[in-house]
Specification:
heterodimer, A: 6-stranded antiparallel β-sheet, B: 208 residues, 8 helices, globular
Chain lengths: 576, 208
């Protein structure tokens, strides 16, 4: 997709040129900024720490398990399986360590490839609701966002129109409707989704169309889903949202963007006036340290990586890193709370064989239904969650096969095969995804000793779930069990007795660390992502989230990045 | 959490193993198949973090002996025998699957290797050197003992682990997927949802 990598990567714009904007990162935020800025006439240099990647030519659309090593199961090299669209990444990246404080648990997923984590993400695209932006005003915990829903809704509308999101308008308080005509029609439901939807109605649990960034009809020149390949592999047709298929190609087409891959950004340069002058990075191919100049800098490296860059941007003017004058840099980090409850539904046994693949992603979800209970004081935890629903007659995998065999009364032989056929498709799983409230024990800082292979200081995580999250998990587990039982099923995966929630970072929704706010005293950036002390430096990824609703963050990251880009463009016309 | 090691490199030493796989894939006589030593190489590499996903290949050498492969295949056939719904695992290349699995350099597969190969050796020992060639009565008796965990034949959860590998090897094959009732999707402009007979079975009325 780009020019040759590394030192030989000088492309359309000369290497020593000064760009209008240097964008660090090529995922959701970086791609969105590049799209908005270049189309408005700005000249952009994008730095990406990973290699070039083109889904159009690299996606294993129809590869089978039998063709893959070890039937495609997860390995330390490919943690989500052989075909997962993650390159040179995982919970650990060789040569790029991080540390976790003793007694704490945190894992950090990174992908070192153009487009970053947008290549493999789950495509769930839920809007934050008005109350999600005002948590302190709602229940006294955390802080409010320095913007209101209508400001964000305008960009949600634009993002959904651009990338294509299927879903429905259900009039739910916790899931704001998109304007008519914005969403694409959702796909038909699968058998288990329909059956559980009926069961949910009986106990007052809504199960509605998921909102997913998958095209159910042609959209903006892109082809529609062909309902035959897993989205987690990416899509060579561009029928789902990836930065590499939706945002970067049109930005490149303007002729105003240069992408430098294998470029590991580590420091923002500051000029004599205290303004950002560009970005220092390591050319991973040659190991050379380089600098690219820009009139403005946008950090979109992923929340934690952007925070790391700010920490490492030390100078006489900013001895503790940029944006850390009030000690908020690295603070207030969260990750979605997650747990799973697995059940078996007898009514789904021995169904006639049929194609149950659909769009590969979730077609439905259980939106948060507890707002009235919260207002009435009937909940012992403050923030909500939603349930995602997995199941159906999907391609056999190790998890499914072990569950099927576990249900079987026969240990082997023809009877075991009969039992496998009987139970195939009858297992369902509810995945709880909940809001975590920032706490004082969860933050990230620079490890005083450890450096990466280029000598760049690395992050040290401190992370603890709070009581709120534990009680929420207990509630979610019970809710999942109630739905399974309402469908005549039984829980087969033991519930965590103590409400044990997912390890920090495991949901790959880590945000915060450079939160936005109304004033410098309590935040790192303003409502547009601009660092208070360095106005031409913006953080535009999930680092700016002051709180983190249970909704998956990508849609909101895209909306905020577009909003920040528009603001920067407007500001540059007046001041730069 | 720290990982200072370099990215795994794809081994080029596995040419012989690749010849084995190619021979198997193209139906060459078994006599041309190389036979492993039964020992795992201590310097084998995985496929790395940036494998060619369009042209998958396994870079590590296959290490099982012909007897080990045959023993595992017969055991798999006893576990998941042929019936009207599908063939025996041995006819689907189970020996190649189990060899690839137990030869892999990753920790989980190496743990399986340690748990499984000694039991295969024990089975051969109890059958005058070859479980694969033992008469049906003896093989069936030994298999039943294993299933029932008798006679110390399952000291380390061997049976459950080996069964899981049999299930994976079989049900991820084309024949196994058909057996279990998985219908692979074909590219389509629409997704219609479940057919009417399924809707009727579930008591679901027409949807909007």
């Amino acid at each position: 997709m780009t020019a040759p990598e590394g030192d030989s990567g000088a492309a359309a714009v000369g290497r020593n040129d000064r760009f209008d904007v240097v964008v660090v990162g090529s995922g959701a935020a970086g791609g969105m900024a590049a799209f908005a800025l270049t189309r408005a006439g700005a000249r952009v240099c994008m730095l990406e720490a990973g290699r070039d990647y083109d889904p159009r030519t690299e996606t294993p659309m129809f590869g089978t398990a039998a063709q893959a090593p070890l039937r495609g199961v997860p390995t330390p090299d490919k943690v989500f399986g052989f075909y997962d669209a993650t390159i040179d990444g995982g919970w650990e990246v060789p040569g790029e360590p991080y540390t976790v404080a003793a007694g704490d648990r945190f894992v950090w997923w990174r992908a070192r490839m153009l487009g970053g984590r947008t290549n493999h993400w789950g495509r769930i695209s839920l809007r934050y609701a008005p109350h999600d932006l005002k948590p302190r005003s709602t229940d006294g915990l955390g802080v409010d966002w320095p913007l209101d829903y209508p400001e964000l809704a305008h960009y949600y509308d634009r993002v959904e129109r651009l990338i294509g999101v299927f879903g429905s308008r259900d009039g739910l308080e916790d899931a704001p409707d998109s304007p008519p005509g914005v969403l694409l029609p959702p796909p038909a439901l699968r058998a288990h989704e329909l059956y559980l939807q009926q069961a949910g109605k009986r106990i007052g649990r809504p199960i509605v169309a998921a909102h997913s960034a998958v095209l159910t009809r042609p959209h903006n020149g892109r082809t529609a889903c062909i309902y035959a390949t897993p989205c987690l592999r990416g899509c060579s047709l561009g029928a789902n949202f990836q930065s590499t298929t939706v945002l970067l190609p049109p930005a490149l087409k303007t002729g105003r963007m240069e992408i430098r891959t294998r470029a590991m950004a580590y420091e923002v340069g500051i000029d004599g006036r205290g303004r950002a002058s560009g970005v220092h990075y390591v050319d991973k191919v040659s190991g050379a340290h380089r600098f690219v100049a820009g009139k403005a800098v946008m950090l979109a490296a992923g929340a934690m990586e952007s925070v790391r860059i700010l920490f490492n941007s030390k100078s006489a003017r900013f001895p503790h890193g940029i944006g850390n004058e009030n000690g908020h840099l690295g603070r207030h980090i969260t990750d979605t709370v997650g747990s799973t409850i697995v059940g078996q539904i007898p009514a789904l046994e021995s169904l006639p064989p049929h194609n149950d693949f659909g769009a590969s992603v979730d077609h439905v979800y259980v939106p948060w239904w507890g707002l009235a209970d919260k207002r009435a004081g009937r909940l012992d935890f403050p923030r909500g969650y939603h349930l995602e629903l997995g199941g159906g007659r999907q391609e056999p995998n190790p998890f499914m096969l072990s569950k099927l065999a576990g249900l079987s009364a026969a240990s082997h032989g023809v009877r075991l095969k009969d039992e496998m056929r009987r139970y195939f498709g009858s297992i369902v799983a509810f995945m709880h995804r909940g809001e975590m409230i920032p706490n004082e024990r969860s933050y990230v800082e620079i490890d005083p000793q450890v450096k990466d292979r280029w000598g760049i200081p690395v992050l040290r995580f401190r992370f603890q779930r709070g009581e709120h999250e534990i009680r929420q998990t207990v509630h979610a587990q019970r809710s999942g069990a109630e739905l399974i039982q309402a469908a005549g099923g039984r829980v087969i995966e033991p519930e965590p007795a103590d409400g044990e929630a997912s390890v920090g970072g495991a949901m790959i929704h880590e945000v915060g660390g450079a939160r936005m706010g109304e004033a410098p005293q309590g935040s790192v950036v303003d409502s547009h992502g601009c660092v208070w002390a360095v106005r031409n430096l913006c953080v535009i990824d999930g680092g700016v989230f002051p709180s983190h609703s249970h909704k998956n963050p990508t849609l909101t990251i895209l909306a905020l990045a577009w909003r920040a880009s528009d603001y920067l463009l407007a500001a540059s016309r007046h001041a730069v | 959490m720290l990982s200072e090691s370099g990215a795994p490199m794809v081994s080029r030493r596995a040419a012989l193993a690749w010849f084995c796989r190619a021979a198997s894939l193209f139906g060459l006589p078994r006599t041309v198949l190389a036979v492993g030593t039964g020992s795992a190489p201590d310097d084998a590499a995985g496929y790395g973090r940036d494998p060619d996903m369009l042209r998958p290949h396994t870079p590590w050498p296959l290490t099982l002996t012909r007897d080990q492969r045959a023993c595992a295949s017969r055991l798999a056939d006893l576990l998941l025998p042929a019936d009207v719904h599908g063939p025996a695992p041995s006819t689907l290349g189970f020996d190649a699957f189990i060899d690839e699995w137990l030869s892999a350099p990753y920790p989980a597969q190496q743990a399986d290797r340690k748990a499984i190969l000694p039991v295969l050796a024990m089975l051969d020992q109890r059958c005058a050197g070859s479980f694969a060639r033992a008469d049906e009565v003896l093989a069936a008796r030994l298999f039943e003992q294993m299933v029932n965990g008798l006679d110390g034949t399952d000291p380390s959860g061997f049976f459950l682990r080996f069964r899981q590998l049999c299930l994976l090897g079989y049900y991820t094959s084309e024949a196994g997927m058909k057996d279990i009732g998985y219908v692979a999707p074909s590219p389509s402009a629409t997704f219609a949802g479940p057919p009417q007979e399924v809707m009727v079975r579930l008591g679901i009325g027409p949807t909007k």
